[in-house]
């Protein structure tokens, strides 16, 4: 199963696992006014390490739970959501039928099928026998290519992943996009760089284990071949930084052109199996990688390709299989790659299987769950207060106004570009809580005793939804994140989406001091908003089309500023010897800087000329900065950080706080930061973009 991702979506992104305290009515969840000052470290100067000043006591006393690779206030939010979903699913499972009809009963039956451990243990590898048999029976490369076409609807993996999104040059229509695939490790670096030798060795042992459990002959030799094959694909693959360039990933081709461009792969059979037999045109993303990967495929022995697919079927299904599979899966994905020490209890894994959330599967269900949109309907109806929506709407109005004013005043952007930017800003829609239109699950058959069947039927129905609407009009009310998700994003529909799951303390607390909310959720809204206008956003115009609306001089002026910011971030060292990649994280760092800038402006505007109150000795501006810093309060394992710096376009959390703060004059004024302190940047060297 692959990840069907949006092309231009940028999520705030955080790995999330989930039990936390619930606020009492009228009182904020953290501290007396929304900030937990007991978690601060007053012994650290803000100018030396603002993240630690705001969060140090909490960091020192908090232990990362063994079943998580990280812990943070954001994780506590997810814990609370999980607890609620757990109660909901237990109740639904207690009353569901064998083959239920209502949405709640289907959610209950799916969860029940996951919790039926004895059935899963008894089945063992037999649960995926049909998929493995199909691989064994395949006679040649063409049949194997066709099996890859099932990647979005079953457990198979593919060398070329396939997804749908709006057509970036004709945004009133949908298009099919294809991406490089084939790798089981998180990034090409894991195959090619000595730093990851340990993980690569562990991956080969994991492949051996899965192939052995799947009854493959000579599993050790086969695993070696599989890893060597993936290493060649890694060499041909684009880097994460290259993939960020929207101008380079829009390469439309007819199917005939694709076959001529990347020969050696049975494209027609592959597309037919994907339900796209009539497809005329596809947009190829990492285009120069395609002929190379197709050639590698054509040169690789069929036996290796079969072992590769068998291993990936087992890997994609392992989360739902008996203990030997599930434990091997945990050791590889959660422990070795993320530093998580103990496996989550079964009910949590069950909740995630149905609802979604990042449990390391890296597939469609990882993000959306198997019935994620249905769970979201039930969750939002029960837990999302309408007052939250009204408050967020007000914040958004102030943030947009602040951005409007900022763009008008920019000294580096030309007048025509400003006009385009302001036009685009007006077209943005903000979506809060849950979608207006709900996904229909009435045709998805769920049985309380068929976990693997439930997963594949849900996957097939989900992919079928996207294929069925390909020729229809673009639905601008669409969402790409489920309501229970603890995240936010800026999407290809020129929308900024805040699911119910992220609108909890400390990101948003209806009972907190407004400055805290401006710093936290205001900063996040600002972050997402600026993405529409940065080095990537500049390539999408007010109609949503891929068109660079900047002049060359604007681009140059922006790049000069961005380069200085990138150089600052490249000096950051989360653990000794491990540096932040200033280029990979560039867009996110600029968005953090912009987000915090807009949050401050919007807070000032919300005061309507009155001075900000002083609370507990903290000024209004200080509280905005503390709100932002508290939103990132958390700690992670070293393995988690190592994985993050190569594969995640977001900087580690401490730099999401210190990085933007040190470039804002208001931070120096608010906390009296002076030359000689570690974060100090001379006024002339501070980066001002928005
Ligand atoms: Zn972002």
Quick take:
The protein has helices at residues 50-61, 73-95, 103-115, 117-123, 129-137, 141-148, 189-192, 197-213, 219-236, 240-243, 246-249, 255-261, 267-273, 289-299, 302-317, 323-336, 346-355, 364-368, 372-383, 386-409, 415-427, 451-468, 514-531, 552-570, 586-606, 620-631, 638-647, 653-661, 665-671; strands at 10-11, 70-72, 160-167, 170-180, 251-254, 281-284, 429-433, 489-490, 495-499, 634-636. It has 690 residues and is α+β, with helices and mostly antiparallel strands. The chain has a four-stranded mixed β-sheet, with helices on one face.
Tell me the layout of helices and strands.
Blueprint: E1 10-11, H1 50-61, E2 70-72, H2 73-95, H3 103-115, H4 117-123, H5 129-137, H6 141-148, E3 160-167, E4 170-180, H7 189-192, H8 197-213, H9 219-236, H10 240-243, H11 246-249, E5 251-254, H12 255-261, H13 267-273, E6 281-284, H14 289-299, H15 302-317, H16 323-336, H17 346-355, H18 364-368, H19 372-383, H20 386-409, H21 415-427, E7 429-433, H22 451-468, E8 489-490, E9 495-499, H23 514-531, H24 552-570, H25 586-606, H26 620-631, E10 634-636, H27 638-647, H28 653-661, H29 665-671
Helix pairs in contact: 2-3, 2-17, 3-17, 5-15, 6-13, 8-9, 8-15, 8-16, 9-14, 9-15, 20-21, 20-23, 20-25, 23-25, 23-26, 25-26, 25-28
The protein binds zinc ion.
């Amino acid at each position: 199963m692959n990840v069907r991702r949006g092309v231009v979506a940028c999520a705030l992104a955080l790995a999330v696992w989930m039990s936390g305290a619930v606020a009492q009515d009228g009182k904020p969840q953290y501290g007396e006014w929304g900030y937990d000052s007991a978690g601060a470290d007053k012994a650290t100067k803000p100018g030396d390490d603002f993240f630690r000043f705001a969060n140090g006591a909490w960091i020192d006393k908090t232990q990362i739970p063994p079943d998580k690779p990280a812990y943070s206030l954001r994780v506590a939010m997810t814990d609370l959501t999980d607890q609620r979903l757990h109660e909901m699913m237990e109740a639904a499972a207690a009353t569901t039928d064998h083959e239920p009809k209502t949405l709640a009963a289907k959610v209950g039956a799916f969860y029940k099928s996951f919790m039926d451990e004895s059935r899963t243990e008894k089945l063992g590898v037999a649960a995926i026998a049909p998929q493995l048999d199909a691989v064994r029976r395949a006679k040649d490369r063409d049949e194997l290519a066709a099996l890859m076409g099932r990647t979005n609807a079953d457990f198979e993996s593919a060398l070329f992943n396939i997804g749908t999104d709006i057509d970036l040059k004709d945004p009133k229509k949908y298009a099919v996009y294809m991406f490089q695939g084939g790798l089981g490790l998180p990034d090409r670096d894991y195959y090619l760089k000595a730093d990851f030798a340990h993980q690569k060795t562990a991956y080969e042992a994991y492949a051996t284990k899965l192939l052995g459990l799947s009854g493959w002959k000579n599993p050790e030799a086969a695993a070696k071949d599989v890893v060597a094959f993936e290493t060649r694909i890694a060499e041909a693959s684009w880097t994460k930084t290259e993939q960020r360039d929207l101008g380079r990933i829009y390469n439309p081709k007819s199917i005939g052109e694709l076959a001529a461009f990347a020969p050696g792969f049975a494209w027609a059979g592959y597309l037919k199996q994907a339900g796209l037999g009539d497809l005329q045109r596809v947009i190829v993303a990492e285009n120069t990688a395609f002929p190379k990967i197709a050639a590698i495929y054509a040169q690789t022995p069929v036996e290796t390709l079969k072992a590769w697919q068998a291993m990936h079927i087992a890997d994609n299904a392992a989360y739902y299989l008996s203990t030997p599979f599930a434990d091997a899966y945990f050791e590889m994905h959660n422990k070795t790659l993320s530093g998580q020490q103990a496996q989550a209890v079964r009910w949590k894994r069950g909740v995630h299987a149905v609802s979604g959330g990042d449990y390391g599967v890296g597939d469609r269900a990882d993000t959306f769950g198997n019935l994620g949109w249905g769970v979201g309907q039930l969750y939002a109806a029960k837990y999302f207060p309408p007052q939250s929506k009204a408050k967020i709407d007000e914040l958004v109005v102030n943030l947009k106004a602040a951005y409007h004013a900022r763009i008008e005043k920019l000294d580096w952007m030309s007048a025509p570009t400003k006009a385009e930017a302001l036009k685009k800003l007006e077209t943005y829609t903000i979506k809060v809580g849950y979608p207006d239109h709900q996904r229909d699950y009435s045709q998805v058959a769920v049985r309380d005793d068929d976990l693997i069947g439930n997963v594949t039927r849900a996957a097939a129905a989900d992919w079928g939804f996207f294929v069925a609407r390909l020729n229809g009009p673009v639905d601008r009310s669409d969402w790409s994140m489920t309501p229970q998700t603890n995240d936010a994003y800026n999407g290809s529909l020129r929308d900024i989406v805040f699911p119910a799951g992220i609108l909890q303390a400390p990101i948003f607390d209806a009972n907190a001091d407004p400055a805290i909310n401006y710093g936290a959720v205001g900063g996040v809204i600002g972050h997402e908003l600026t993405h529409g206008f940065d080095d990537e956003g500049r390539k999408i115009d007010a109609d949503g089309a891929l068109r660079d609306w900047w002049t060359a001089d604007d681009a140059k002026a922006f790049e000069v500023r961005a380069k200085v910011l990138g150089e600052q971030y490249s000096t950051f060292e989360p653990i000794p010897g491990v540096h932040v990649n200033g280029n990979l994280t560039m867009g996110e760092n600029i968005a953090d800087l912009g987000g915090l800038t807009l949050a401050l402006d919007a807070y000032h505007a919300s005061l309507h000329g009155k001075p900000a109150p002083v609370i507990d000795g903290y000024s209004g501006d200080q509280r905005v900065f503390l709100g932002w810093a508290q939103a990132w309060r958390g700690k992670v394992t070293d393995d988690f950080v190592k994985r993050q710096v190569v594969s995640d376009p977001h900087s580690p959390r401490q730099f999401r706080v210190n990085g933007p703060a040190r470039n804002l004059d208001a931070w120096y004024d608010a906390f009296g930061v002076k030359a000689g302190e570690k974060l100090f940047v001379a006024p002339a060297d501070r980066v001002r973009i928005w």
